[in-house]
Write a structure and sequence with these properties.
There is one protein chain. This protein is of the alpha/beta class and about 250 residues long. The chain has a single domain, classed as Spore Coat Polysaccharide Biosynthesis Protein SpsA, Chain A (Alpha-Beta Complex), CATH 3.90.550. About 35% of the residues lie in helices and about 25% in strands. α4 crosses α7. The longest helix has 14 residues. About 35% of the residues are buried.
């Protein structure tokens, strides 16, 4: 049903190691682009989803105080919940899929799940993706076309059939078969959420969501939704500064 409630899970628990000194002192999703944090930009998109939406933000202990300060500044009525599954005495978090499985277990009631990486910066509609995903009644992900082979090597590269089903997926391949890549934006119907707990219990430690998604694609049909628009993975300081530069020039 188009207006059935959903849950959004924003993955904001990374440590920003590829950002160098910048990532050591500030949570990546709280870095500012065009006068707003990356997380604020994401929430602008989720707020436009035309059905009830409860949002969970998966964080870590290192930056918990920063996120707590940030959430106190939010004034909109959208329900926001910070989730920190770390033991404060531990040096490292659970792997990403175990962390998501733990978070899903805390969600009541279970709803269809929209997952967004907290370092995604984009300008296309998430509502269009929700409509597409519910029409296909299955797992899906947002796809974009990058411009060069060098860019494609940094992401999970996919090949599609004529019905938008992902037929092949390779994580960070040396020789990409296409320039079409997955973003860290995924849709999981509520009856597929058990995959996360199953994988975390039965499979090897997962260092990336991409490994888990490859496993899912081997189990059942998964669909790719091509988005026209701008998308950036804020993975390195160079990418961040190329987007933040216009803001510094105006100030």
């Amino acid at each position: 049903m188009p207006n059935e409630p959903i849950c959004t899970l924003i993955l904001a628990g990374g440590y920003g190691t590829r950002l160098g000194d910048l990532g050591r002192s500030m949570a990546k999703p709280l870095l500012r682009i065009k006068g707003k944090t990356i997380l604020d930009h994401i929430l602008e998109k989720t707020n436009k989803i035309q059905c009830p939406n409860q949002t969970y933000i998966l964080i870590n202990s290192k930056f918990a105080t920063q996120y707590e300060h940030w959430i106190r500044q939010r004034t909109e009525s959208l329900s926001l919940t910070l989730v920190n599954n770390q033991d404060l005495s531990a040096d490292r978090a659970p792997d990403i899929i175990t962390n998501i499985a733990m978070t899903i277990s805390q969600m009541t009631p279970h709803s269809d799940l929209l997952i967004i990486g907290g370092d995604n910066f984009f300008d296309f509609s998430l509502w269009d993706f929700v409509v597409y995903s519910r029409a296909h009644r299955g797992i899906s992900t947002v796809l974009v076309d990058v411009k060069t082979i060098e860019e494609a090597r940094q992401f999970s590269v996919v090949s599609l059939d004529k019905g938008d089903r992902i037929m092949d997926i390779s994580e960070k391949p040396s020789w990409p078969s296409s320039l079409t890549v997955t973003t860290c934006i995924y849709w999981f119907p509520k009856d597929r959420l058990h995959y996360f707990s199953h994988y975390s219990k039965e499979m090897p430690h997962s260092e990336s969501f991409g490994q888990f998604f490859q496993w899912v694609c081997a189990i059942e049909p998964v669909f790719g939704y091509r988005c026209l628009g701008n998308w950036h993975d804020i993975g390195t300081r160079e990418v961040y500064e190329s987007l933040a530069e216009p803001t510094r020039q105006q100030t």
